């Protein structure tokens, strides 16, 4: 795994995030969400104009690569005074279980700490047990349970987790 590179993405590389999301999202969420909700959320979060707007608003996009191949990504940014938010963190299934998800989380924690934040917060679907285990291993603790309406009659049934920096 010596050809693994994690780096910040330029605005013109945001399509790489969608490329990975198109593969990892259905695998991750088909057991949890309806096909209609997956399609709705993909458009809501990964449409090019949505990611470009987030980028312009200061959200940082990172890509994880095996050689030239994009295999994972995470995004984070300001949430509240003292608190940053990890918006997205996904890794292709065939690369999971190798410490690469932890590598991305450690980078997000390091970057948020370096930017002066004292906490990193995230939302995770309450049924995404694999991700929850990973977050717990990396110092996150559940602080709240929420059911957020996101439109079209859909909800995000999440845990809010935080790690102290």
Task: Describe the structure in brief.
It is built from five helices and seven strands; from the N terminus they run βαααβββαβαββ. With 165 residues, the chain is α+β, with helices and mostly antiparallel strands.
Provide structural commentary.
The protein is 36% helix and 38% strand. With 165 residues, it is of the alpha+beta class. It has a single domain, classed as Gcn5-related N-acetyltransferase (GNAT) (Aminopeptidase, 3-Layer(aba) Sandwich). Strands 1-2-3-4-5-7-6 form a 7-stranded mixed β-sheet, sandwiched between helices. The two termini are 28 Å apart. The model has no long low-confidence stretch (mean pLDDT 96).
Which helices and strands occur, and which strands form pairs?
Elements: E1 4-8, H1 15-29, H2 35-46, H3 48-56, E2 60-66, E3 69-80, E4 83-91, H4 100-114, E5 119-125, H5 129-137, E6 141-151, E7 154-164
Parallel strand pairs: 4-5
Antiparallel strand pairs: 1-2, 2-3, 3-4, 5-7, 6-7
Helix pairs in contact: 1-2, 2-3
């Amino acid at each position: 795994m010596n050809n693994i590179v994690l780096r910040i993405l330029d605005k013109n590389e945001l399509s790489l995030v969608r490329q990975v999301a198109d593969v990892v999202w259905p695998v991750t969420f088909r057991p949890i969400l309806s096909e209609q909700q997956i399609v709705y959320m993909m458009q809501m979060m990964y449409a090019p104009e949505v990611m470009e707007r987030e980028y312009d608003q200061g959200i940082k996009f990172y890509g994880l690569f095996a050689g030239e191949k994009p295999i994972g990504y995470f995004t984070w940014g300001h949430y509240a005074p003292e608190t940053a938010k990890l918006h997205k963190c996904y890794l292709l299934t065939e690369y999971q279980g190798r410490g690469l998800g932890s590598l991305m989380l450690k980078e997000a924690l390091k970057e948020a700490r370096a930017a002066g934040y004292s906490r990193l917060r995230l939302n995770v679907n309450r049924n995404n047990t694999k991700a929850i285990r990973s977050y717990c291993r990396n110092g996150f603790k559940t602080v709240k349970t929420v059911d957020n309406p996101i439109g079209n009659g859909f909800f995000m049934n999440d845990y809010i987790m935080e790690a102290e920096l």
